[in-house]
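User: Okay, second chain of the day. Same drill as before: sequence in, structure tokens out.
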Amino acid sequence: MVLKPGHHELFRDIIPREAMQYEYLADGILAVAALHLATLEPLQSSEHIKTAMVYQDSGIRGFKEALSNVSDDNVNAIFSFSILIMIINLASMGISSDLNPSESLVSIFELLRGVVSVIRSSEQRLKEGPFKVLLEPPAEGIQLAPDPIEQGSRAEAFSSLHERARAISKYVGPQTYEIYSAGIHSLETTFENVIGFSGRHGMTIAWPVMAPHQLITLLKQSDPMALLIWIYYGVLTLEIHEHWWGRDFGVLLIRDLSEALLKIDQEWDPYIEWARLKAAKVQE
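Assistant: Same drill. Structure tokens below.
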């Protein structure tokens, strides 16, 4: 996991220190560790996965209790666990072929529904602390050499996405269009802050929690435009494909949501071409 110094400190020092006070957070760390062992020791993977699930279930119980008693003291631990549960679900997808990526996203959000309001109400406090590196781009970062072809194709893809949302706005009404528009703008900004920079993967993980919550509701309803937006999020998660905990999630998400979208109407096919090409590229 390639991380900037701030991220190193966060995952190496800050979160473990919080876990010394909150058992559910320690359970989350142990669940991630067990899943990592499952990738390192394939012959014992089933046992490691069982261990991970035990720790995950224990952590979730404590997490739910914490959500009913939020304070300035435990908000960092609550946010930490929400990030770990995202990593656990991403890692589980790469280890087990029985999981569905879109259903996994929905289940994650259902679990984290309570934490979204906590995060939003405490966002300024979180941004003033060590979690700033996950919630907004650092003032300075290691910028990689820009790829003008990649930048151009992404700009064209998002322009097409905006245009498609506007085109169907007359059918869905202004409120739903606003959900589309807010989601697209949020995702496009995250792309700009992640692509071409080293060590900003935390922003990729955090996006589903920080995105408009109605996008998950529309995803559950198989709303075509929402499916397309989440397919684009799949492209963003290709940035973590190289890491053991993020491998194949984006590829599977793009594949499954594309199939669902085309079952609704084949006219959506041109709009998913960019995502399919990006998924194919990481598998070469």
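The two ends are 21 Å apart (CA to CA).

User: Thanks, on to the next one.
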